[in-house]
């Protein structure tokens, strides 16, 4: 049986990962638009692979299917990505 604290933690983890995915997605879209008008190089396909990976990670975190080590590393990655894409340090609950 899942406790309320576990559900809150799952939701918090999911929200952080989803925020990181959306941040990377926005950055990729902006870079793609700039490359379309010739102001920036073409966005590497790896950026879109990363977004897909983060989406899947968020789904698994929301269902509570991530092993503790994977969850920890995934959250650290998301915090770093949020810091890089937003310019300010991420807020973790």
Could you explain how this protein is built, in words?
With 93 residues, this protein is mainly alpha-helical. Helices cover 76% and strands 0% of the residues. The protein contains three helices and no strands. It has helices at residues 4-36, 45-63, 68-86. Helix 1 (4-36) runs antiparallel to helix 2 (45-63) and helix 1 (4-36) packs across helix 3 (68-86). The longest helix is centred in the first third of the chain and has 33 residues, at 4-36.
Radius of gyration: 15 Å
| Proportion in helices | over 70%
Overall body shape: elongated
Helix and strand content put the structural class at: mainly alpha
Largest sheet: none
- In DSSP terms (H or I, runs of 4 or more residues), the helix count works out at 3
Distance between the termini: 24 Å
Provide the low-confidence segments as ranges: none
Element-level helix/strand string: HHH
Strand content: under 5%
Q: Could you report the average pLDDT, rounded to the nearest whole number?
A: 86
Number of strands: 0
Task: List key phrases describing it.
single chain, 93 residues, mainly alpha, 3 helices, elongated
Outline of the structure:
With 93 residues, the protein is mainly alpha-helical. Helix content is 76%, strand content 0%. It is elongated.
Question: What's the structural blueprint in terms of helices and strands?
Answer:
Blueprint: H1 4-36, H2 45-63, H3 68-86
């Amino acid at each position: 049986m899942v406790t309320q604290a576990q559900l809150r933690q799952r939701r918090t983890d999911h929200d952080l990962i989803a925020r990181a995915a959306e941040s990377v997605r926005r950055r990729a879209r902006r870079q793609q638009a700039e490359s379309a008008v010739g102001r920036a190089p073409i966005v590497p396909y790896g950026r879109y692979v990363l977004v897909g990976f983060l989406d899947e990670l968020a789904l698994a975190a929301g269902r509570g299917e991530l092993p503790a080590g994977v969850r920890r590393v995934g959250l650290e990655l998301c915090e770093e990505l949020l810091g890089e894409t937003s310019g300010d340090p991420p807020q973790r609950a």
